[in-house]
Design goal:
Blueprint (H helix, E strand, L loop, with lengths): L1 E4 L3 E8 L3 H6 L4 H7 L6 E7 L6 E7 L5 E12 L3 E7 L7 E10 L2 E9 L3 H10 L2 H23 L4 E7 L3 H9 L1 H7 L6 E7 L6 E7 L6 E11 L3 E9 L18 E10 L2 E10 L4 H9 L1 H22 L1
Antiparallel strand pairs: 1-2, 2-8, 3-4, 4-5, 5-6, 6-7, 7-8, 9-15, 10-11, 11-12, 12-13, 13-14, 14-15
Helix pairs in contact: 5-6
Length: 318
């Protein structure tokens, strides 16, 4: 990934391991866009979306601080798998900047060039003074990368998926995932004791913990939270660790991936909450991907026991 500026341009180039057709598809559906569009912690409500030449997208971005930001995009040219060009403003009356996004094949993956052009250098500088524009663009394309990675793994049948419905409101289910004093009461294998050394539940934060299972030394693990949207989803990278938060080797497995990408979605349905988990390896070797896939049945059993504990804990809270 690289960021390049001219006096009127803000540009980022990012590589994806997925084919460009899949990367391009992430713009086609408002439900998909809402999962990754905007900086970390932001969510999006679409009012109108026509993804075509001379189409438009009207939406509101909701910041983690509770502030709403109206946006309007006029698509000037949409060429599937090749480019997206549009004009961007707060509404239909004024264009703040134009955008040109291109997609190129790159060694079996995709290189995306995302370029914002402002009317003047002064306008770009004003935006940089008001908002952390470079960080915002980097975080937005990073969120896109997370979802592209997971969808590509699904298509290759290399993603682990697990889902459970809980007869409790989403606010309560979210609470026991997001607060240490609750999370440590139910997370982990059955009959394991868990203790946190760190728990910083914010984008960029981490959770460092160890489990004692009665089968040897404590097992340390590290989660790095990359994106959190309250009551909607949690995205984090996980790994086995040591007590200092360094990379550790997986017990029992010779070829376990060093890092996993995990997305947890919370969906409200008729007063209940569905928790969907999907995970996949990051930059893994063929042997690591195969070992991960070989453990899907065992992982389903493990998550089943963990979610049994979650359900029991939720029942104790109400």
């Amino acid at each position: 990934m690289s960021t390049v500026d001219s006096d009127r341009e803000l540009r980022i180039r990012r590589k994806f391991s997925a084919p460009k057709e899949l990367v391009f598809q992430m713009w086609e559906n408002p439900a998909t866009l809402s999962k990754w569009w905007g900086p970390n912690g932001f969510s999006t409500t679409t009012i109108h979306h026509e993804f075509r030449d001379e189409g438009s997208w009207k939406y509101i971005m909701h910041g983690p601080d509770g502030v709403d930001y109206p946006n309007y995009i006029h698509f000037t040219s949409v060429a599937p798998g090749d480019h997206i060009r549009y004009e961007h403003g707060e509404d239909e009356t004024r264009v703040l900047f134009t955008v040109n996004i291109t997609f190129e094949d790159c060694g079996g993956g995709t290189e995306m060039d995302f370029c914002l052009t402002f009317p003047t250098a002064e306008e770009l500088q004003k935006i940089k003074e008001l908002y952390p524009a470079e960080d915002g663009l980097r975080q937005t394309t990073g969120r896109l990368s997370n979802y592209v990675t997971v969808l590509d793994a699904k298509q290759l049948q290399e993603a682990f998926e697990y889902s459970r419905s809980f007869a409790f409101p989403k606010e309560l289910v979210w609470k026991v995932w997001s607060e240490k004093e609750h999370f440590e009461k139910w997370w982990g294998p059955k009959n394991a004791k868990m203790e946190f050394a760190e728990f910083d539940f914010i984008p960029g934060g981490k959770a460092l913990y160890f489990m004692v299972t009665g089968q040897g030394d404590p097992i340390w693990a590290l989660w790095r939270y990359t994106d959190i949207v309250r009551h909607d989803h949690i995205v984090f990278e996980s790994s086995f660790s040591d007590a200092e938060g360094g990379l550790g080797k997986a017990p029992w497995f010779e070829h376990w991936p060093d890092y996993l990408l995990n997305i947890v979605d919370f969906v409200e349905e008729g007063g209940s909450t569905i928790v969907n988990i999907v995970g996949c390896p990051i930059d893994a070797t063929p042997a690591q991907r195969e070992q991960y896939k070989s453990m899907f049945n065992g992982m389903k059993g493990g998550f089943g026991g963990t979610f049994d504990q979650l359900e029991e804990y939720l029942n104790r809270l109400v």
